[in-house]
Write a structure and sequence with these properties.
Length: 241
Amino acid sequence: MNVVLFVFLTTFLASAVEAIEMVTIVVGVGATRGWRSTVIGAAAGFAVLAAIVLILGAALSVIPIGGVRLVVGTLLLIFGLQWLRKGIVRVAAHGFAGIREAHLDEGAEWTRPEMDWTAFVVAFKGVLLEGLEVAFVVVSFGASANQLGVAVVGGVSAVVLIGGIGLGIHRLVVRIPRSVLQLVVGVLLTTFGSFWALEGMGIDWPLGDGAIIGLLILYGVTALSYIALERRRVLGLSPGT
């Protein structure tokens, strides 16, 4: 395999992993909180990312990303736990058929016309962090092999492809009941938040990015357990009622 093809495939596949995480966050937040604020947040994240890349360029490869991961991971963990709690309570109350339309107990959370700063911030930080990860991959591999142009093409191709897939499936995502979707997004944000925050603290996960699957299973099983307990309470089957 020649150097050009190796650099392209490496940067494409590595960037695709980061892009999947980026698209997962943006689509999940948009489907649960509304697309207007989410899209604005994602666009702002891309704008800041583009400015950073243009200003710093190859210097990105020597900038420590640990601090960024710690801050962004902690914030996503906070948001994720809040959404996870709400998702557990609502799925326990309504079942997995869930809330398909805005109910009175949803309040203005789904219907307010003004900017939803929670959606904005989560989308912004998800795009910015994952975009920086892609930039680091592209610069590191491209500069090391003296094939920066090829690395840029590989990274951008991955982001465009995964972004296009995310755009194509978002209509399917919004068909999921909102209470269930909020539970799923809560699990995802809590998972990514935990992973990035501990990475930012210098902790190496077993299996690397594969640890994300383990965290998803852990938080998913935990959520289902709490849903079962909450349903027993709501239905009057536990002493706590």
